[in-house]
Design goal:
This protein is an alpha/beta fold. The chain is built from 10 helices and 7 strands. It starts with a strand and ends with a helix.
């Protein structure tokens, strides 16, 4: 199944509605509707943070996922404080599949590949690792397989491939963090943000969430905004700035220069 959307929020609403009438399967005994081989094309990945009437997201956790991914660092301590159910996805307090830790150094390699060859097809980062993940029984096996980036027509296009995606619980956070990654890398590479593509092997919706879909309203429009303040002419220095700014936000030591940085600081460190 392949569909085009203007914003990530619109994609979320449509996929949830399609899953209400999809085929029922029962992996590990859990009643679930499922769509196989789903591809979502997002034309405007700049429309974040994600916002849909009727889906009350934990914005602090959404911000943490962005910062861990772009800062290439785990933030388990803050995550435990900001997400009540995170223990269900940890082993002895550790997030085995933490994306930030697994991305460390890979963003540098993506930037290097695209700087050296603007037409490259090799700018790929991997999160799922079959040599360490396949057959494991931890609570936090990564759902994301790969992230691939292209530069075409002076714009960055990226695609994320996932083995599995819970449409209600996970999809809004995944679209938020990967659209943020997409736009931040475009800033680092000094190109326009192009299309974001989200490909999923199994898009699914658990029975416990079926009734919640009926309460969804409209996607709430968010203005486009620059994500971070990356002003150097050199892409490697801009990437270093991005990493450090994300880590400074986690440490609550940044003086924000953009509305997005201000939003991240507010949601991550607001204890209300």
């Amino acid at each position: 199944m392949e569909n085009e959307y203007h914003t990530a929020a619109e994609a979320f609403i449509d996929i949830c509605e399609r899953l209400l009438v999809a085929e029922v399967v029962q992996p590990r005994g859990h009643v679930t509707t499922e769509l196989l081989d789903v591809t979502l094309h997002i034309e405007d990945p700049m429309s974040i943070p994600f916002d849909v009437d009727g889906r009350d997201l934990n914005m602090a956790y959404a911000g943490l996922e962005i910062l861990q991914l772009l800062g290439q660092t785990p933030a388990d301590g803050l995550a435990r404080r900001r997400a009540k159910n995170i223990a269900a996805f940890q082993d002895a307090g550790i997030s085995y599949g933490n994306y930030g830790a697994r991305m460390r150094g890979q963003l540098t390699n993506i930037v290097k590949e695209l700087r050296d060859d603007g037409d490259s097809r090799r700018a790929v980062a991997t999160i799922y690792d079959g040599t360490r993940d396949l057959g494991q029984r931890t609570r936090d096996i990564p759902c994301t397989l790969t992230i691939q980036c292209f530069i075409r027509d002076a714009a960055l296009h990226s695609r994320v491939s996932m083995r599995s995606n819970d449409a209600w619980l996970g999809l809004p956070y995944d679209l938020t963090q990967f659209c943020a990654l997409h736009c931040a890398l475009a800033e680092v590479l000094a190109v326009a943000p192009g299309r974001y593509t989200h490909t999923v092997g199994s898009m699914h919706l658990y029975e416990r969430d079926w009734e919640k879909i009926e309460e969804l309203g409209d996607a709430i429009s968010n203005p486009q905004m620059r994500l971070f303040s990356l002003d150097s002419l050199d892409c490697y220095y801009r990437l270093q700035q991005l990493t450090e700014r994300c880590q400074d936000i986690l440490d609550n030591t940044l003086e924000p220069d953009t509305r997005f940085e201000t939003w991240l600081l507010a949601v991550v460190h607001n204890d209300d």
